[in-house]
Each structure stands twice: as C-alpha cells, then as structure tokens.
C-alpha cells in the first residue's frame, strides 16, 4: 500500500523530555485523518516536524513513498504540504489577495500583477466554495473568514496535504459547518487532510481514520467508523473517562440571583433584551445559545463589567448600581470566558494570580503592604488542593496549558465561597481529562448549596451539567426547559431560533 | 512684509530636501518595522563625508558618492544590530546619533585640523540647475529652477518609494514584514535580509540628505549641522504613518513653517520666540495626529 504521507519511527526529544517516540503515522491519499491526543501528547511536535519547523532526531518521513528531509516550512510547502495554524498568521492591514499571494506574487515587468492575482485567488475560492471577498482587508474579517484565507493561502501554493491544527477551536457552530463542507470538497478533490483536534464528536463526524497519541506514542490507529468515542478517549487518556457528568438530583433552595427586565445596549435590537432569570441555591442553570446571541453581554452586565438597565438582586440585595469589586464582595464569583485575556495576566506569578481581587483581605495585607508569606502560603495550599501542575507558586502563569490555567482561575474564584458562581465557557480548550474534573468541581459547588449560572456553546456541556436550561437567541430568553426533558435535537432547533419545530 | 520673494521660496524648497530624503528613509524602515530614529546622526555622517569626498576629489559628484557610501556603511550598525544581533532599534539609534556627532567632530580635527566649522575653497559645491525657460516666472521658476540635482532627485524618489511600496512584489513583502514578521517568515520571506537591505538603502537616502545639507547648500561643514532635521523627519514619518506621499506633504508643511519663522524674525520678533515656530507646529501636528489615530482606533467598537 502506497501511503500519501507516512512517518516511520519518528522520535523527537527536547533535552530530557521525549515529545515523540517511535511515531508511525500512515495517511491515505484523499482521506481526512484525525490526529488526536490531549494537550502535551505530542501532536504539535509531530505536526511541526511534518511541516519542517522541527527536524526529527530519529525516524523517517515519506511523502508518496519518497523519503523527505525538510529544513524549513518552505521545504515542506515545496513538497505540497500546507498548514493552518491555530493562531492565524495573517497581515491585518493587507487585503485578502495580498495575504494569499505574499511570497509568490504574480508579476509583470517587475510590478505586481494585481488583476492576475485577484483573478487566481477568487477562482480558487470559488472552486472550493470558500466564500471570501478577496479585496477586503483582513482587519475587517471574522474569525471564520480569516480561517478560509489561511486555507486559501495553502491551496494557492498547491498544497496536496493540508494540516489543520485545532481548526474549530475558534469557530461558531455555523462556521464549523462551513469549514466541514470545505474539508469535504477538498477531500473529494483528492487532497489529503490532517485534522488535529481533541474534540471527539468532530472526529466522528468528519474524519475517515484516526491516529491517537498519548505521551508521545501512538496508542491507537483505526478507521473512524470502526471506532467508538469511548475507545478513542481510553486511548487518549489511558483510562476510561466518563463522558456523562455524574450528578444527583438538584435540591433548589432560596433564590440567590434574580435578574429582572435586564436590557443591554440600545436601538431596536439590543444585545440583551428584557431578560429575566432566577437562579436558586443548589441548582445549575445553563444558558445555551450560539455564540454572539447576547450571552457574554448578559453575564458581563450581571458581573458589573458592562452597563445595563434593569434589576439585578443577589440574595435579596440590589447590586445593579454596585461596582465590580462591590459585587464580588456581595457574593459573586466569576469564571470568565477568556481566561488568558480577562481571567489572568500572563506575566503574573501563580501566587499573584490567585491573590487578584483579594489583595485587601486582612489576612493577606496589613497597612497597605502585602503580607507575602501569607500569600505564598495560601497559593501553595490552593495549588495543592486544585491539582494545578506548576513548578512553584512563583512561576508565571503565562506558561501554563489551557487546562492548568483554568484550574488557577477556578481555584481563585471558588476560594471565595461566594453564594453565586458564574461560569462562562468553563471547559473551552481544555483536555478531556481536565473537563471531567472541572465538571465535577462545578457539581460539587452546587451540592454545597451555591447557585451556579453556566454559559456554554457546547451543547453536550449544557445538557450534561445543567438542572434547568435557558436558550438565548438574539438577546432574548427564547425558552426554558428542565435538563431532564431536553434533547440535543430540540436544543439545536431552539438555538437556531426555531421555536415552532422544537415544540 | 514681503515674505514671498524668489529667494525665500527657492531656499525653502531647497532647505526641505534633507528632511524629505531622511523622511523617505524613515518611511522605508518603518514599513519593515524598524523604528529608525538614527536619521539625525545619519544626516550628519552624510554631510561630513560629502565634504571629505568633495575636498579630496575636487568634484561634487565625488562628494555625494562619498557621503552616500559612508552613510550606508554607518547604517550597517542598525541593519545588522536589529537583525543578526537582535538589538533594540531605539537603543541602537540613540547610540548611533551620539556616535555620529562625536565621530564627525573627532574626524574634523584629525583630517582637517579644524574645530567647529570647516570651509575651504577646495570644496566643490553641487551646481544648481537653472532652467532658463521658467527661471524668471514667479512661483514656477522660484520653485522649480535653481535647485540642486539632489532636490530634483528627492521629488522623484517620493514617487519611486511609493511605487516600490505599493506596486511591486518587494513592497508587498516589506509591508508584510512590517505587520507580521512571523507570518512573512512562514511564507518563505527572508525577514532579516529584507530588513538589512532596507535599512542600508535608507542609509543611502540619508547620505544624500547630508550631501545636500553640506555641499548642496553652503559648502561648509559645521559640527552638529544636521540641527534637528533628522528628528523633524522622524516626526514626519510618524504623522504620515509610513506613507511616502503624506511624508512629503508633512515635510512641505514644516519647511513653510520654518521659512515663516525666519520672516517673523526679520519683522523684529525676538529670535528665541521665532525659532520655536517649527517646533510648535511639530507639536501641534503630533497632537492632531494622535487624536486622529485614537478616533480611528476607537471607531469600529
């Protein structure tokens, strides 16, 4: 059998750490091949070697049966590889076509041949149904469109093998569906796609075969239709992880959070329109919805980060006019959507990050000076209690993986034992193993009698974790239903704003 | 008050040339994200070596070439400093500015045995080109006749820089490097090499600026004779957001302001006050530019 792309015993070490050990990858021409593994399993290292950014210490890489040695990404591009990185590599102020032809520009007598460049890029976009206005500036494009520009960049260089590194991490569900359509079109055209991810349902939906990595080694290799999500998870984590959230029935108590007639924004279509929510002690209320339907604005208005009109009461006290710090003091803990940008500061140490917002506590400061021994002591305790993998409390949090960083945020927020916990996308970009731990933690908070307001774009998370589900659509609460009665299909229709069909 | 006579207009345009050339140099460097604030020192080096070349070869062309080559060589400090040695451009440029003023004063003593100012009949000045057809026509002749070839070249270079930046593959790559050097690298563009050559080419422009200042205007060298022109060019680059056409427009504005201040002085205002006019205008322009920039950044929200 002739493989389109094959690695034989590829090994890569970084000092004492072995990132890849004896990796055999076999990819057929014209298939969508998933490369799965938890963070740190060696997916990125393997992809970097395939794309020429790193060189293997041992082993061989073969393309269409011929051994290759790449010394740079340019080498790899020359051999028909293309890669769409998780963090896009685009030029904001340049147009789409300029971004795409950069480095391989059509020229006439030394001048850029704009007409030819635009025509060839537009033709390519049309051929694979990648709807992009090639004369727009990248600055003005949404994330989904930017990703298409990245794909076009690879196709313009005639990539036969396309590596997509966690391509859906930043996409809305609609954008994801669009991407999958493009992937199918590329596959039908005979191109080969390496799909790097740790999202199971996507693997089941779009890929033809799967290679699973754990701790740098291949632990499983199979055709997607012959595998099961459980088998893949076991191969990824080395143990069986429950996909379902284990929790008993809720015992709702007194009302903790009451939002009445909250509106954010102005005009005929405000971001949040006249929303009323009640969350009781001991229950998890999940807000489902496609990203961008007002969930973020709603949460930010409750947390005090964004002005809104309406009443917000916490344990009977009106907090609508309070500032952020006062609201937190009144009993609100908040796990923000973007832990890197708003939840933490990359340059701060773990101890400082865990301190943030608590710097005025009598136990942690005295007379305007920080009590550093007490702060370190507390940080060490929280790190141990929350199983945060970090060298010491003095290490900077910017180096932590997504899951570990999220644990830091959760440790800080839950330490303050506030009666209300707001969790916004608590497991986005987090490993399967860590997701399980975070879910268990949120359920434990509920069982300890706290009110939890959860926002998630992952339907399975809302369904698994919530006791009651609210569906948000275009700034309004479209429906409320008990989680026990909700189905994925019904939620999907509601999230798309189709109330009639869902009933 | 007769501000607008043939002589002042002509001198205003000629006096603008060094600033314009330095600003074009700054625009090129800015496009590849090398913040070049060594323009002042580079002009001084160019001015000094133009005198050296002119004195020893007896030819103005020899002077210009000497000034240009010396400034290109001087620019390799920045060119290699920010690429191969990963230095900080601000620190490097401050060092280069200090080095330029010290080095030219030192060499002035070593080579010519002079301190402060050096003038000599052996220095060949750049000839001005008189265009007889328009020479005496008001405005047209004042502006376009009796300028040095360097001045005409500087106008041409505004167009050339604009075309290179916006109409050629090289310019596209330069703009790409300036915005996202990592992304440019992944597309196989040699960021370091492009930056080095851009900085060195910018050095050539500064060398021309210096030559215009010394042998194109007065035929002498004076210590510190760049007198802030390089800094005004830096401001022009910032106001123009690395656009060569706008940079030229800003330079023209500054030149007019400068002439205005000289004229005010002739009206009897104290020179300490009138000397401040170009700098006040610079300050006002910077503030306006900053406000405009802030509005633009805030607009999409």
Describe the structure.
The complex is a heterodimer of chains A (about 500) and B (about 300). In chain A, the strands form 6 sheets. A 6-stranded mixed beta sheet of chain A has the order 6-9-10-3-11-12, sandwiched between helices. Chain A has a 6-stranded mixed beta sheet with strand order 18-21-22-15-23-24, sandwiched between helices. Helix content of chain A is about 35%, strand content about 25%. Chain A is globular, with a radius of gyration of 25 Å. Chain A is an alpha/beta fold and about 500 residues long. Chain A starts with a strand and ends with a helix. Chain B has helices at about 5-30, 40-55, 60-80, 90-110, 140-145, 150-165, 170-180, 180-185, 190-220, 230-240, 245-265, 270-275, 275-300, and strands at about 115-120, 220. In chain B, strands 1-2 form a two-stranded antiparallel ribbon. The longest helix of chain B is centred in the last third of the chain and has 28 residues, at about 190-220. Mean pLDDT of chain B is about 90; it is low at about 295-300. The chains are: A alpha/beta (about 500), B mainly alpha (about 300). The interface of A and B includes residues 92, 94 and 110 of A.
CATH topology category name of chain B: ABC transporter involved in vitamin B12 uptake, BtuC
CATH superfamily of the largest domain in chain A: P-loop containing nucleotide triphosphate hydrolases
Strand order within the widest sheet of chain A? 6-9-10-3-11-12
- Shape descriptor of chain A reads globular
What does the overall shape of chain B look like? globular
Largest interface: A-B, 21 and 18 residues
Radius of gyration of chain A from CA coordinates: 25 Å
- Quickly name the level 1 CATH class of chain B: Mainly Alpha
Number of strands of chain A: 24
- CATH architecture verdict of the largest domain in chain A: 3-Layer(aba) Sandwich
> What is the N-to-C order of secondary-structure elements of chain B (H for helix, E for strand)?
HHHHEHHHHHEHHHH
Distance between the termini of chain B: 50 Å
Q: Classify the beta-strand content of chain B into a percent band.
A: under 5%
The proportion of residues forming helix of chain A, as a percent range, comes to 25-40%
The residue ranges of chain B in which pLDDT falls below 50 over 5 or more consecutive positions are 297-301
Give the helix/strand class of chain B: mainly alpha
Task: Give me the CATH fold name of the largest domain in chain A.
Answer: Rossmann fold
- Please report the number of helical segments of chain A: 18
Q: Name the average pLDDT of chain B.
A: 91
Percent of residues in beta strands of chain A: 25-35%
Strand order of the main beta sheet of chain B, please? 1-2
């Amino acid at each position: 059998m002739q493989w389109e792309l094959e690695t034989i015993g590829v090994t890569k070490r970084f000092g004492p750490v072995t990132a890849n050990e004896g990796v055999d990858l076999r990819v057929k021409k014209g298939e969508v091949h998933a490369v799965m593994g938890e963070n740190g399993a060696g997916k990125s290292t393997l992809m970097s070697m395939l794309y020429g950014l790193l060189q293997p210490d041992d082993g061989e890489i073969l393309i269409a049966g011929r051994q290759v040695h790449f010394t740079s990404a340019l080498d790899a591009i020359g051999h028909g590889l293309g890669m769409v990185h998780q963090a896009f590599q685009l030029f904001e102020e340049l147009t789409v076509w300029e971004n795409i032809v950069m480095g391989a520009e059509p020229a006439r007598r030394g001048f850029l041949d704009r007409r030819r460049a635009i025509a060839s890029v537009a033709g390519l976009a049309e051929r694979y149904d990648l709807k992009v206005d090639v004369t727009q500036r990248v600055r003005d494009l949404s994330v989904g469109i930017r990703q298409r520009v990245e794909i076009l960049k690879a196709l313009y260089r005639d990539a036969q093998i396309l590596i997509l590194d966690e391509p859906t991490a930043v996409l809305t569900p609609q954008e994801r569906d669009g991407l999958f359509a493009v992937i199918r079109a590329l596959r039908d055209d005979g191109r080969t796609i390496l799909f790097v991810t740790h999202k199971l349902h996507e693997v089941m939906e779009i890929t033809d075969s799967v290679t699973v990595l754990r701790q740098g080694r291949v632990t499983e290799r199979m055709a997607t239709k012959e595998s099961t999500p459980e088998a893949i998870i076991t191969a990824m984590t080395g143990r069986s992880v429950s996909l379902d959230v284990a929790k008993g029935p809720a015992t709702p108590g007194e009302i903790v959070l009451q939002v009445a007639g909250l509106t954010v924004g102005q005009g005929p279509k405000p971001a949040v329109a006249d929303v009323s929510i009640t969350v009781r002690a001991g229950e998890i209320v999940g807000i489902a919805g496609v990203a961008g339907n007002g969930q973020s604005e709603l949460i930010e208005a409750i947390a005090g980060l964004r002005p809104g009109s309406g009443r917000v009461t916490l344990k009977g006290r009106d907090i609508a006019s309070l500032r952020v710090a006062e609201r937190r003091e009144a009993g609100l803990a908040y796990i923000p959507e973007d832990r890197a940008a708003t939840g933490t500061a990359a340059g701060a140490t773990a101890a400082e990050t865990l301190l943030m917002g608590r710097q005025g506590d009598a136990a942690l400061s005295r007379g305007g000076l920080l009590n550093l021994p007490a702060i370190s002591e507390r940080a060490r305790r929280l790190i141990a209690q929350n199983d945060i993998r970090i060298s010491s409390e003095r290490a900077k949090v910017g180096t932590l993986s997504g899951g570990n960083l999220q644990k830091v945020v959760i440790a800080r927020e839950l330490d303050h034992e506030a009666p209300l916990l707001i969790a916004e996308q608590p497991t986005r970009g987090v490993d399967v193993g860590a997701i399980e731990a975070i879910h268990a933690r949120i359920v434990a908070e509920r069982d300890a009698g706290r009110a939890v307001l959860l926002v998630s774009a992952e339907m399975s998370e809302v369904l698994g974790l919530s006791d009651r589900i609210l569906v948000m659509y275009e700034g309004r609460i479209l429906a409320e239903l008990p989680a026990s009665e909700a189905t994925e299909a019904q939620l999907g229709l509601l999230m798309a704003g189709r109330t009639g069909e869902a009933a | 008050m007769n501000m607008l006579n043939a002589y002042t207009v002509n001198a205003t345009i000629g006096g603008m040339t060094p600033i314009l050339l330095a600003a074009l140099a700054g625009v090129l460097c800015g496009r590849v994200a090398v913040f070049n604030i060594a323009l002042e020192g580079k002009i001084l080096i160019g001015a000094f070596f133009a005198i050296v070349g002119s004195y020893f070869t007896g030819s103005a062309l020899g002077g210009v070439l000497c000034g240009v080559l010396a400034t290109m060589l001087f620019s390799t400090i920045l060119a290699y400093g920010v690429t191969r040695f990963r230095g900080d451009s601000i620190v490097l440029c401050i060092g280069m500015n200090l080095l330029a003023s010290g080095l030219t004063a030192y060499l002035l003593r070593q080579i010519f045995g002079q301190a402060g100012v050096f003038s000599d009949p052996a220095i060949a000045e750049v000839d001005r080109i008189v265009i007889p057809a328009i020479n005496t026509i008001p405005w047209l002749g004042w502006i376009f006749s009796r300028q040095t070839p360097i001045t005409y070249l500087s106008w041409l270079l505004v167009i050339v820089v604009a075309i290179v930046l916006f109409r050629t593959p090289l310019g596209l790559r330069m703009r790409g490097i300036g915005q996202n050097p990592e992304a440019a690298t992944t597309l196989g563009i040699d960021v370091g090499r492009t930056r080095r050559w851009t900085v060195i080419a910018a050095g050539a422009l500064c060398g021309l600026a210096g030559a215009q200042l010394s042998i194109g205007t007065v035929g002498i060298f004076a210590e510190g004779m760049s007198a802030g022109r390089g800094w005004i060019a830096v401001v022009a680059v910032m106001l123009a957001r690395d656009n060569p056409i706008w940079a030229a427009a800003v330079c023209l504005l500054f030149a007019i302001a400068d002439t205005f201040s000289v004229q005010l002085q002739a009206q009897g205002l104290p020179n300490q006050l009138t000397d401040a006019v170009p700098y006040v205008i610079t300050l006002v322009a910077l503030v306006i530019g900053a406000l405009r920039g802030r509005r633009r950044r805030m607009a999409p929200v």
